Description:
alpha+beta
Amino acid sequence: MFSDTVKNKLKKFDVYRKLPQDLTEPTVSGAFVSVVACSFMFLLFLSELNTYLTISTSTEMFVDINRGGEKLVINIDVIFPSYPCSVVSLDAQDIMGSHVMNVEGSMKKIRTDRSGVSLSEEDLLKSGQVDTQAARLQFENKEGCRLKGNIKVNKVPGNFHISSHAYHDKIYSIIGHDIGKLDFSHEIVHLSFGENQDLQVIQSTFHEGVLSPLDTVKKIKSENVKEAVSYEYYIKVVPTTYKTLKSEEFYVHQFTANSNEYRSEGAPAVYFRYDLSPVTVKFSQVQESFFHFIVQVCAIVGGVFTVAGLIENLLHSSIATVLKKRDEGKLG
């Protein structure tokens, strides 16, 4: 392919010049150092490969830029084992003055018996008039109710509450003025802020963030308390963005919560009071680039090879010196 002249000129650029085989000799010390060096290189390579294959998450914070017209989606799944569905209402109120009874969204109320078995269900947000006789029968049978679905509210501080405020007249016609009979003991099966589909993807992909800290929380009214008891949750909502390796972004909300309960002079309720943080947290998946991985592997091979060569030279020289002194009888 090349003439001898061209080959001879190309050889001048060879920085990996070879020694003839008969000018080199293997040694036991060299073999020992080679085995140790190769083993060490292999372990470092596996460590670097693991780092390359591992997907980590970076975190950053910045001031939230409200995506125009956006609503705050709240997912709710709460069980009231001692309060019938006929007289349950869900209302929302915010600092802008908006007070909506039976708010926007999709919410089912599921009738349950005293054992928690589902009896029937209907759309809470499209409920019609209350049948007083049916409501009285549900009270007598000690039925419960489960609210499951989501609501959409303005993205400003406010609250949503579960109560019987929309049915005051019906309540008083059934139980009179003994509001202590209204038991809002409850279990929060799930509460979160954001689209449910996005939350499911996030929970299967990421391990960061506090998306539903109130799940499984129970509040039970003591049998010794004869007065009505109201419950309040104070929630701090933090807008959060999750970005995958494929640059897909999901916008949900983390939150922290504290709770309180008190004896109520009026009709009891369960309040969820939320406030929004002005700061957004962003979690982004990151992975080491392939070129960085190659550079690290080359550094491992070159570094270990060089250091092993230095150690082998030192070891070989030391052994040769000791053997020479032995032959000369200088070791005593």
